[in-house]
Amino acid sequence: MKPAIATRIATGCLLATLGAFSYTGAAVAAGSHDHGSAAAMLKLNNGAKWETDDALRSGMEAIRSEIAQALPAVHAKRYAAAQYEALGQAVEQQLAYIVQNCKLTPEADEVLHGVIAEIGKGVDVVAGRKAIDDRSRGVVHLVRALDDYGTYFAHPGWEHIETGH
């Protein structure tokens, strides 16, 4: 597949998973380019972590920072609905930055889709687009997705978020 076509497909998949559009739009996009479950996509590169680029590292560090800063208030149950919504927007902005600027090999990009799909699921809960009784579960989902990123991608200095659990 030509890189330009792969980039357009990757961008379409990411936008669908972000939850920035209605679930109908996401369902249509997923139906036209379904990779299966995110867990099935997460794999190493012949036993090694996938290479990253500056844009991916920068975006993921910003997402990690946002979540790490929110975590103490989330744990203390002092995180308001507006704060959850703002966190969701901040994560989505970084994902959009990654999509626009990240240049990975098609194989690495496919694995990144799995991580991004999970981040999108967490954002849907955090931002209140998916009805759930406790938005903090979305933050937990985001932390797990970031753990997956660190497991499958070579990001010098990457640290897992300590949740205290």
Describe the structure.
This is DnrO protein. Keywords: Signal. This protein has one domain. The protein contains seven helices and no strands. Helix 5 packs antiparallel against helix 6. It has 165 residues and is mostly helical. The N terminus is likely disordered. The longest helix has 22 residues.
How many strands, which pairing sense, and closed or not: the largest β-sheet? none
Please trace the helix and strand order, writing H or E for each element. HHHHHHH
Secondary-structure class? mainly alpha
Silhouette? globular
Compute the separation of the termini in Å: 43 Å
Question: Mind telling me the C-alpha Rg?
Answer: 15 Å
Low-confidence parts, pLDDT < 50 over ≥5 residues?
1-36
Number of helices: 7
The tally of beta strands, per DSSP, is 0
Q: Please give the domain count.
A: 1
Mean pLDDT: 81
Measured as a percent range, the helix fraction is 55-70%
Taken as a percent bin, the fraction of beta residues is under 5%
